[in-house]
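User: Let's play a game. I give you a shape written as tokens, and you guess the letters that built it. Ready? Here's round one.
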């Protein structure tokens, strides 16, 4: 009596693939305070390195790493924009090297940080800054959203 080998039906393999979301590109003029998850195509207008002061030596913080051996973060404030307006982008560490005037970038998962009442665009570790082919738009420099000062107002009794 011979038995035929049958495939085991209980060991069915299922592969799940998640479909990636198609990015929705927004314009600089559509940015609002406190928002995040933006994808933009922008050109770098200018880039200024910010001189950082070192860590506070007398702040009383206990650290296991000597203050001299910690790498000092590099920060640059860059004016970026598209055909609708401009905004200041805060570039950190590796992003500083990419920020050359005239470069066209795709900013993925960008967020709006508030600094002294004005908007700053930033991309943290969850986002990405990519250099792309040069865009054919002219940056509108007269609409700088970072020059608009915002004030937080608490509404009581609503």
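Assistant: Ready! My guess for every position:
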């Amino acid at each position: 009596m011979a038995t035929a080998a049958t495939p085991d039906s209980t060991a069915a393999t299922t592969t799940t693939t998640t479909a990636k979301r198609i990015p929705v590109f927004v314009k600089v003029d559509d940015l609002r305070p406190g928002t995040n998850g933006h994808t933009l195509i922008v050109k770098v207008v200018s880039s200024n390195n910010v001189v950082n002061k070192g860590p506070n030596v007398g702040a009383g913080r206990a650290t296991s790493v000597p203050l001299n051996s910690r790498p000092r973060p590099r920060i640059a404030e860059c004016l970026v924009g598209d055909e609708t307006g401009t905004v200041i982008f805060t570039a950190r560490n590796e992003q500083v090297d990419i920020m050359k005037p005239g470069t066209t970038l795709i900013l993925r998962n960008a967020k709006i940080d508030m600094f002294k009442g004005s908007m700053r665009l930033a991309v943290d570790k969850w986002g990405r800054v990519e250099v792309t082919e040069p865009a054919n738009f002219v940056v509108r420099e007269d609409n700088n959203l970072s020059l608009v000062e915002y004030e937080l107002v608490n509404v009581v009794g609503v």
